[in-house]
Each structure stands twice: as C-alpha cells, then as structure tokens.
Amino acid sequence: MQIQGYFDLQFEPLKEAFAELFADPQERGAGLCVQVGGETVIDVWAGTADKDGEQAWHSDTILNLFSCTKPFAAVAALQLVDEGRLDLDAPVARYWPEFAAAGKELVTPRQLFSHRAGLPALRELLPPEALYDWARMTAALAAEQPWWTPGEDHGYAAITYGWLTGELLQRIEGRGPGESIVARIAKPLGLDFHVGLADSEFERVAHIARKKGDLGDAAAQRLLKCMMSEPTAMSTRAFTNPPSILTSTNKPEWRRMQQPAANGHGNARALAGFYAGLLDGRLLPAELLNEMTREHACGEDRTLLTRTRLGLGCMLDQAEVANATYGMGRKAFGHPGAGGSVGFADPEREVAFGFVTNSLGPYVLMDPRTQKLARVLDQCL
C-alpha cells in the first residue's frame, strides 16, 4: 500500500504501523496526523475513499467523524461560559424554557455535557425522517422524562447529545450549532472541519462502510445482544430511535444537518489541529480546559454497558480498562468516533492526535487500531 504525505524520520515506526493496517483486506482508506508541541510530525493517508474502491484517498479527503464531533460542541459552549453568556450550573431551562418539563427544571448544562442528565434516548418511537427534523427532535427531548434522577448516574447520550447541546448553543447564539462551531473553532484555527456540510464539498467525502465478520470485544457483544433482544431497553432506544440513526452516514441529508453529536466532517489533520489548539490555549483559557477535562462521571455507563470516564463533552483515559484507554498517558482526553476514528490530546507529552478511517470496526469505545498507533507513537517520543 502506497502511503502518501509527510513524516519526520523519528516517527518512521509510526508510519510503518499505519501502513500495516492495510494488511487487512477490509481496510479501505485512512488518515493519521500527529502534532507534538505544535509541530506536525506525521500527516499521512492511504487507501480508497469511494464505495467501489476505485478513487484514491487524497490529502483533502474528509469523512463523517461521528462522535469525534462532541468535544467541538463542548468547546463552543465553554467559550460562551468564558464570555459570561452561559452558566454551567444554572438550569438549562433558563436558556430553553420548554426544557423544564417532566422533572427537568433543575437539570444543568454541566449535566448535559457530562452525560448525567438522564436523556440518552427517547421512549416514544419516532419515524426515520424525524432524524432530520431539528424542531421535532428538540421538542421531543424537552418533553422527555429523564431515565434516572439527573446528576445521580451517567449514560452516554450517543446522538441526543447533539440536539441537547446544539439547542442550548442555538438559544444563546441565535445561529445553528454547526455555524457556531465553525465560526468559533474551525475558521480561527484554519481547520477543514464542518458540522453541516455544503453540497459543494460532497465530492471529497469518503464513503463509509462496516467491516464484516469482526464481532469486537465483550463490551461490543454485550451492547449488540441488548439491541437485538431488548427493543425497548434504553441502550437500544439510544441507537435506534429514530431508526435511521445507524443507517444515515452516507446520505446527503445527514451531511447537511448540523448535528454536533455525530455528524462533523473533517480529516485527521482537523482533529490534530483542534487538540493542538486546546493544548496551546488558543481555544480555551487554562481554567476552562481544566474544567472540561476534570472527571465528572466514572463507572458503569448505563447506555454503553461498559465503564466510561467522562469530562465535559470528552472521554477521559482509563489506563486499566482495555477498551477505554487511548494508549498513551493517564491525562489523555479526547473522543472516539463510531467505528474507529479518534481525536485526542496527551497534555503530558504535548501530543495532539487524529486518526480517521472509512472502514468501521465494531468496538464500543476505543478501536484497537488507534490504540496500537498511539502506543507506537509513545515509543517514538
């Protein structure tokens, strides 16, 4: 497999580890970018981007990054905190009055961002097209009763996070959440990152497909078993209501939507650039970055049925949990995306890391591909 791009010779073992991914015939296309101390030490890509495996992955190929999008929304909100326009511990209903319904009058933005508000899913079944109807989804969530007493437990809001945090941003800023994220983060840092993609960009978006035959680890199998056998379980509803959630990634209407839980589009360079901007203080003052990356929840996740450790809009490292470590330092923070893409920072080593793939693996948290690359990177440093 021909590897395109740039790498510093010190990081040649990392380039080789990236090339080894393509020994798997199901690996279609991927990109890897790492900055150390603000300097790019590797920015490589390889493979194919289209459905039929005929179009090469290019320097400017972008793809749906799924939940790698979540920290971008959190940072936009924390900038509002810095500006005195959002209070993390005030009721969400102060900004979004309808949200106070069904016992949510005291739920705070902090609880939304740390997945402790009790709203990872909707009970009432919605039709597939509801996924693209912002007003309908936010109204449904405003009316929803929490699945547990808010603040007392945590459960990952895989997709509802986007409507909850996005509506909060929209109520305060008066513009779409994707517009806020691009204006506040992507434009100032020069990142090729979009939440709500223009049709003119579609031709450079990689087609995403699942790998076949790999059942993943115990956590993946546990969640799959729940989804197959318990249609009304909270975990099942979180991923299948509306039923279009898991089948929409390559659709034009999904790309156009501003859904900051799961439909950011960008590349490895954009992820690494975002985390570099967090580490060097361009995006948030130190005290707010500390707040974002402080432990807010830890333990068995009621949605994912595995251990998660959460900050505000980010996942924190669990070195002792095989599927929940980035593979570097204990202070690492960032976010995996469904199927294998990941962006994270290791502040102790000044590392900003982005890996993207259009070959989706079955893992619930960290994909072994990215963990291996991170461990090789650690050895190079």
Automatic annotation (TrEMBL):
Species of the source: Aquipseudomonas ullengensis
Residues covered by the Beta-lactamase-related domain: 17-368
Protein known as: Beta-lactamase family protein
